[in-house]
């Protein structure tokens, strides 16, 4: 079995950003993504009001250069203004041609 080394970019953000983040990730080179509701607690504590909406967890598997473009865009346009976190992990995938 052939495995291809790629990067898994995970973004956790306010649900109000869902459409914008999906557009950005695709525009920056991702071929696809997975998006699920997210809950948890971080440095700002737990969200206490339902009107704020849920968080989302957006994951995409991409080549390293695309991962770096996504992180740069998040740092420039989202981190200063929204509750957004992002991290990158090394992954090995089968059918790597689907992601590049």
Question: Could you explain how this protein is built, in words?
Answer:
With 100 residues, this protein is α+β, with helices and mostly antiparallel strands. The chain is built from two helices and four strands. It has a four-stranded antiparallel sheet, covered by helices on one side.
Largest sheet: 4 strands, antiparallel
Helix-strand topology string: EHEEHE
Q: Return the structural class.
A: alpha+beta
Give the mean pLDDT. 91
Number of E strands: 4
Unreliable sequence segments:
none
Helix residue percentage = 10-25%
Give the terminus-to-terminus CA distance: 18 Å
Arrangement of strands in the largest sheet: 2-3-1-4
Query: Radius of gyration in whole Å, from Cα?
Result: 14 Å
Strand content: 25-35%
Please tell me what the overall shape is: globular
Task: Tally the helices.
Answer: 2
Q: Oligomerization state of this entry? A: single chain
């Amino acid at each position: 079995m052939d495995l291809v080394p790629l990067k898994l970019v995970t973004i956790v953000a306010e649900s109000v950003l869902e459409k914008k983040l999906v557009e950005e990730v695709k525009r920056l080179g991702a071929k696809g993504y997975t998006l699920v509701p997210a809950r948890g607690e971080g440095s700002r504590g737990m969200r206490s009001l339902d009107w704020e909406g849920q968080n989302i967890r957006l994951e995409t598997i991409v080549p390293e250069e695309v991962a770096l473009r996504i992180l740069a865009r998040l740092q420039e346009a989202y981190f200063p203004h929204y509750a957004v976190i992002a991290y990158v992990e090394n992954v090995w995938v089968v059918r790597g041609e689907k992601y590049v």
